[in-house]
Amino acid sequence: MWPALVANKILNKRVGSSNFIADYPSNTESLLGYAHSSLRSKTLLNDHKDTQKYKIFVSTWNTGGVAPDEGVNMEDLLETCNKSCDIYVLGFQEIVPLKASNVLGYENSKISTKWNSIIREALNKSTHDDEDLKDEERRNCCIKEGNGNPGQQKCEAPQDFQCIISKQMVGIMISVWAKRHLRPLIQHPSVSCVGCGIMGCLGNKGSVSVRFVLHETSFCFVCGHLASGGREGDERSRNSNVADIFSRTSFPKGPLLDLPRKILDHDHIILLGDLNYRISLPEETTRLLVENEDWDSLLEYDQLMMEVMSGNMLRGWHEGTIKFAPTYKYCPNSDLYYGCCYQGKKAAKKRAPAWCDRVIWLGKGLKQMEYSRSESKLSDHRPVKALFVAEVRVLAALRSFERLFLSERFEQIKTQFEVSPADEFVCKKQPSFRL
């Protein structure tokens, strides 16, 4: 079977490459979505458009081929006890080891299913909206549990988040979650996978991109894992990967043939992942500056920063101010960078610290509010997270329809398309829908 699988992957014709997992079927229009599309196509193209703002959480994490265990604290990464966002986008790299059987063989979805289960539990267990709670209520939202350990908290007032899109290509995975009341407003979800790895087309490196439209604004999130290497000139391979991803990623035009097909055609674009850009300094100099926490001096030689400022493929993109330590490469279960914790033969395998894990964006109407890293020691990378406020265009004439269809009485209607309870999505290993 392997020759056939390899041939299909080389020809970029993998079965199911445009399929994805979701909590509901996107090929069936909701009542609100149908009304939106019909009115928009017939009478409201020139209608007055208002603007709404939504909070979007984005994170990226190279898990180093280590499967999640009971000790993984997704609530810390998602900061669900401190804030609640409207949409969560989580990107992972190397969720499975990049060995031949995983790169060339059938997709192993057990690990991605487990990650989705952990994400679902964290989002639906302990989120609350800071804007809707008074200070006293906010303080009381989190209650201690477990032998009085203040590090263990359980937040009440849960909100129901649903999986909009989840897609895996070898070790790259992206998972998008939204509040339940936003589901009818999110239209035309789609995915596109591009392999840039072995032979320039296999999925050990590359990207998984997702597209959807919220109200009148298109979003594109690109989860990438670019070429590795810390030698001089290796950054050109990463730039080449970006060029391939931009040129080869393609989405459906949509029923009205008016949806953006290419990444750069969308209104709001966010590129996240292990982009693997390094620091163009001698290793000894890099380690000394890291020890002194001289981030500004290091960033002057950061390859991605230079590409954003004066390069070709990513010129004009934006990134928040980096005020955290390099996220790569750590010794297992340690706060020490690789090369500092080994002696003898292993000491020769040094990897200079670098900000490999990044979140950058393009498009007007996106404002980054936070940019930081988390401290999970699951892998040799630290997770990176960003919080955005996105402006979204809304047709004014559709506001009355939204108020009608999002009212409590419509929320209680059980349709033939409604899925089973959320925990069945993963816990029983029965994905709600594979689209």
UniProtKB/TrEMBL annotation:
SMART domains: IPPc. It comes from the Eukaryota. GO terms for biological process: phosphatidylinositol dephosphorylation. The keyword Hydrolase applies. Coiled coil: none annotated. Residues 52-396 form the Inositol polyphosphate-related phosphatase domain. InterPro entries: Endo/exonu/phosph_ase_sf, IP5P_plant, IPPc. GO terms for molecular function: inositol-polyphosphate 5-phosphatase activity; phosphatidylinositol-3,4,5-trisphosphate 5-phosphatase activity; phosphatidylinositol-4,5-bisphosphate 5-phosphatase activity. Pfam families: Exo_endo_phos2. Keywords: Hydrolase. The keyword Hydrolase applies. PANTHER family: TYPE IV INOSITOL POLYPHOSPHATE 5-PHOSPHATASE 9. Belongs to the inositol polyphosphate 5-phosphatase family. This is Inositol polyphosphate-related phosphatase domain-containing protein. It comes from Sphenostylis stenocarpa.
